[in-house]
Amino acid sequence: MQTPPAAFPRRAAAILVSLMAGASLPAQAQAQAQTRDTLTIGIAQATGTFHPNIESMAAKAYILGFARRPLTGYGPDWRPACFACEAVPTVENGGVVLETMPDGKPGMRVTWRLREDGRWGDGRPVTAEDMRFAWEAGRAFETGFGGAEFYRSAYEFQSSDPRTVTLRFDKVNFEAGSAGGFEPLPAHIDRAIWEADRRNYRSRTAYDTDTANPGLYNGPYRIAAVQPGAGVTLERNAAWAGPAPAFRRINVRVVENSAALEAQLLAGQVDMIAGELGLSLDQAIALEKRARGRFRFEYRPGLVWEHLDLRMDQPPLSDIRVRQALMMAIDRSRIVGSLFENRQPVAATAIHPDDPMIDRSLAPWPFDLARAGALLDEAGWKPGPDGIRRNAAGARLSVDLQTTAGNRSRETVLQVIQGMWRAAGVEARIANQPPRVLFGEALSKRQFSGAVLFAWISSPENVPRSTLHSDEIPRAERNWSGQNYPGYSNPEMDALLEALPQELDADKRRPMWARLQAMTYRDLPALPLWHRAEPHVLPTWLEGVRPTGNMSPSSLWVTDWRVR
Amino acid sequence: MLRTIAWRVPQIVATLVILSLVAYLAIGAMPGDPISLAMMADPRLGPEDVARMRALHGLDQPLLARWSAWATGVLRGEFGYSRLFARPAAEVLWPALRGSLVLLGTALALAAGIGVAAGMLAALRPRWRGVVDALALVSQAVPAFWLGILLIILFAVTLGWLPAGGVPDSGGVAETARFLVLPVATLAIAHLAAYARHTAAAMADVLRAPWITAARARGAPESRIAFRHALPNAAVPLLSLLALDAGGLVSGALITETVFARPGMGKLLTDAVMGSDQNLALLALLLVAGVTMLATLAADVAQRALDPRLAA
């Protein structure tokens, strides 16, 4: 078909080849010329709404990192940092004041001072009125903002001048100063829309109906165009008063298939792949071996904690000796070494090694098959004729293993764990499910019976109430809310989780955190695996990109990005 | 002809209504509604929050009542709001539909053109039959995703002649065409085997017919026999094939769209179903079903026009 013996088709083929070559040359030249003022970033997830407070999505957070400045966040050093404010409020700097509520209970008053140079893209200053609108909309449940607990607790808004914002909280919480999710919203654009129809605001906000409106953005860039499901184009925000960003335009392209994303990188269509939501770690490692000289690879272990949740209120996992034996039967160092080239640290508990509250005296559980066997013997599980252990009643020691079907990396890990557990005499039956079923049904309604491999993402010093407090065990009468899927119930842990947020002194919190870690380390409601690393694939000519590994994406520091 | 149309159109409408109900119930009964997934994302949602959110999204109503409300909205021309894309469902659908029509329309035209030509060659020049059969076999046997990746590696990564995928940010027809070359080639190669084989078989049958022998005896040239007499008669079964592929024009090509990172109906439909985006999934499903049924009707009408024996 392509090389017919006639003269005309041969000529046509030659013309086609020369056309393609000719077309490619200007394109390449143009791409190289544009390299210095246009940056094209590949990400693997599409975003729905662009409203910062509606639905939590990594892709949206990454894109808005270029275009918006939240009130606060976490820096690359994992300390709370101010973006739209001048300083993170603390007791020491007077920003946090303890007070007694009218009902006699302890409360607190937190004050933020907005930056003087904060401007929306249409030139209007970012003021306390924008914060008031965000607070009012967040308090009105029908608006459908995330972080409902924050708005429920922040019962009063005060402002003495356009740059001062004070919230009064009905409880003491050391996290209040970092104000997670409390962001300025452009009241001059969105307030009227919200007031007209609060219930449908989520579908009528200007962030989704007029996304390219410059007045929605207070960051170094503004969203200039959206290609739904395919990407966005960002251009410099003329009203930005901070350091000028290096690129005139940033294209963020959505390529959900990671093989296609890799191909576009190698073909030069995208300059870099964001670590926050790009290639999986094993793919990036494989790519690095093939394209080491062409790109710079940075791996940042972050706050994504891979683990196995255990159904600990049902036998055989209700026996702590069985859980500890299963832990010691997994050679995590070997898995991390062979599958991930030691790019991500083995976890001792859910607390990341870079978290300021880490208890470094706790070393990760060792791989010790002999001790695992001894514990199982002690628990009454003796080796059977086929190598699988049995109890006195003759029941086999079987554990169902589940993870998200289609996630090759996790599926491989599960198969390795299955083999390792078998060496300890434990039968593991793998039954993976699509993410929608696993997360929407099996986990959230506690319909699993053994162990589920998945990950939690959190922020630094995040109190794990939702995963460890006995009130947070999902039950039908609680509308299945809560994330304590293992069914962990420990009165000492409950008391600690209630006391911990109320302690404002970091030094006094440290021993509390140590006790929390010691309990989860011993009781093992979840088997910790590792802290997942983000693989950032960067062009060699780009510098200043600082992967954070936390909830604040690297795009928040885009003004530091420079062409080498 | 008109009687056929008058009889089939109400059937199509009834089928769409039943399909919408079945699809609505099936998607609604799938495990993992949007609120369950939101609970995973926001650990601070308490029982009251969950109850309010279910009420806010109408998920506290029985499925049948929700379908009834949805159907009433559709009759008013309101197709609802896409949960995944935070935009009206119809607004999300059109760019994907346009992408699929351009991609699949071009590929289908190419596949049908080359396939029919190859089939005619095999029928008219029997010594070429083996070559055409072999090419058809290869084209059918090569998986589209594998072929797509091979083409990307060769033309985009190694030679750098063509884009590896995606759509151009801007640019005219030439730039758009460059982005289309590889996915269109992938799809066309996958589709042309069926056209080549059907054409070859149908043409071979027709060329053995007595009236073709009679035409030859009257001294008609071979080209006239092939194009004026044989091809129109051989085209009747090809129309059924075209009608089925026309349905595919709007259902998209999931694998090709995924490998080449092109927005299209295949990926949109999959994302909508897996992401619990009921409004978008239903609108896309009904569009695909409607177009497929209308294309089949059009093929039936065309077949009757070409072959009066069918009309009788």
What name is given to the CATH topology of the largest domain in chain A? Answer: Dipeptide-binding Protein, domain 3
Decide which structural class fits the backbone of chain B. mainly alpha
Order of helices and strands of chain B: HHHHEEHHHHHHHHHH
Largest interface: A-B, 66 and 65 residues
% residues in beta strands of chain B: under 5%
The percent of residues in helical segments of chain B reads: over 70%
Name the quaternary structure: heterodimer
Organism (chain A): Roseomonas indoligenes
Keywords (chain A): Signal, Transport
GO biological process, one term (chain A): peptide transport
Family (chain A): Belongs to the bacterial solute-binding protein 5 family.
Structural commentary:
The complex is a heterodimer of chains A (about 575) and B (about 300). Chain A has about 575 residues and is an alpha+beta fold. Chain A folds into 3 domains: about 5-50 and about 210-300 and about 535-564, D-Maltodextrin-Binding Protein, domain 2 (3-Layer(aba) Sandwich); about 70-190, Alpha-Beta Complex (Dipeptide-binding Protein, domain 1), CATH 3.90.76; about 300-535, Dipeptide-binding Protein, Domain 3 (Dipeptide-binding Protein, domain 3), CATH 3.10.105.10. Chain A is about 30% helix and about 20% strand. Chain A contains 17 helices and 20 strands. In chain A, the strands form 6 sheets. In chain A, strands 8-9-10-1-11 form a 5-stranded mixed beta sheet, with helices on both faces. Chain A is globular, with a radius of gyration of 26 Å. Chain A starts with 6 loop residues before the first helix and ends with a strand. By secondary structure, chain B is mostly helical. Chain B contains 14 helices and 2 strands, in the order H-H-H-H-E-E-H-H-H-H-H-H-H-H-H-H. In chain B, strands 1-2 form a two-stranded antiparallel sheet. The N and C termini of chain B lie close together (about 10 Å). The model of chain B has no long low-confidence stretch (mean pLDDT about 85). Chain A: Pfam families: SBP_bac_5 (PF00496). Chain A: Its main location: periplasm. Chain A: Keywords: Signal, Transport. Chain A: One of its GO terms (molecular function) is peptide transmembrane transporter activity. Chain A: It is found in: Periplasm.
